[in-house]
From TrEMBL:
InterPro entries the record matches: AB_hydrolase_fold, Esterase-like, Mycobacterial_A85_antigen
Pfam families in UniProt: Esterase (PF00756)
Signal sequence region: 1-21
Keyword Repeat: no
Protein name: Esterase family protein
Keywords: Signal
Domain of life of the source: Bacteria
GO terms assigned for molecular function: acyltransferase activity, transferring groups other than amino-acyl groups
SUPFAM superfamilies, per database record: alpha/beta-Hydrolases
Length: 274
């Protein structure tokens, strides 16, 4: 549940006069693992000219691309300024689910995002090169990807979010090219089980990750997100969970990213003041 401190931070969204001072750049980052350049949008808040900032990796959904967030949720630049967070939006390929696929050089997106891209951003931008100030989140396929990458790379990220994430795709065996990456479910059940987030909670290390999950009540992923929430409760994994009216659409994600940015701001600012 969202606590009073979080709401007090969220209220700032309505109080700050929006002056778009954040700088938005599109860069090409070379992936040695995939032998190709990958487009990345980087949103630098105004404060990054004065000091190093926390950084948030923000992932797109299935059939999306690196520019989705800045084009379809343009207030993301104001949120970057408001909370003083550098936002990095990598291209995750078409139906990659942000996995490394064995023996497929075109799909090494875990290595790219959590290794190659993090190293590039740390070296080339005014960000705090410390996992305590590095987070990751995303929508739909990107929500799954954020949780998947954070659980597998807890030495890289300290806070993770997901909005309308495909946190258990087993109920959808013919959708979103998952079988193109993992094979048909009937013949490759173990691979599907190993790659779905709801089955990966055993990887969580106590006090290692701050976790946020939200989903729209009318979203086709609502049921699996509710199941993830219940399983985290059962396993005593601390997390924030928010349900709001909304379907699997950008009008919901435009609202939810404001809540998520307030949450990430709360986490990072709490660490700054310690």
């Amino acid at each position: 549940m969202v606590n009073k401190m979080f709401f007090s931070i969220l209220l700032l969204i309505g109080c700050v006069l929006g002056v778009k001072a954040a700088q938005v750049d599109t860069v090409s980052v070379y992936s040695e693992a995939m032998k190709k350049n990958i487009k990345v949008v980087v949103i630098e808040p105004e404060v990054s000219k004065e000091k190093e900032t926390p950084v948030l990796y923000l992932l797109h959904g299935y059939s999306g691309k690196y520019s989705d967030w800045v084009l379809k949720a343009p207030h993301i630049t104001e949120l970057a300024d408001q909370f003083g967070i550098t936002i990095v939006c990598p291209d995750g390929g078409f139906g990659s689910w942000y996995w490394d696929i064995e023996n497929d050089a075109n799909y090494q997106y875990e290595t790219f995002v959590s290794n190659e891209l993090v190293s590039y951003i740390d070296k080339n931008y005014s960000v705090i090169a410390d996992r305590a100030y590095r987070g990751i989140t995303g929508l739909s396929m990107g929500g799954h990807g954020a949780l998947y990458l954070a659980l597998r790379n807890q030495d890289v990220y300290s806070v993770v979010g997901s909005t309308a994430g495909g946190v258990d795709f087993r109920p959808f065996p013919d959708n979103w090219q998952i079988k193109d990456r993992l094979g048909e479910y009937a013949q490759n059940k173990d691979a599907w089980e190993d790659h779905t987030v709801i089955n990966m909670l055993h990887l969580y290390k106590p006090n290692s990750l701050e976790i946020w999950v939200d989903c729209g009540k009318q979203d086709f992923f609502y049921g699996v997100n509710e199941a993830l929430h219940q399983k985290m409760n059962y396993l005593n994994i601390p997390h924030r969970y928010l349900v709001m009216p909304g379907a699997h659409k950008w009008d919901y994600w435009n609202r939810s990213i404001a809540y998520q940015m307030a949450y990430f701001g709360e986490v990072f600012n709490g660490r700054t003041t310690k």
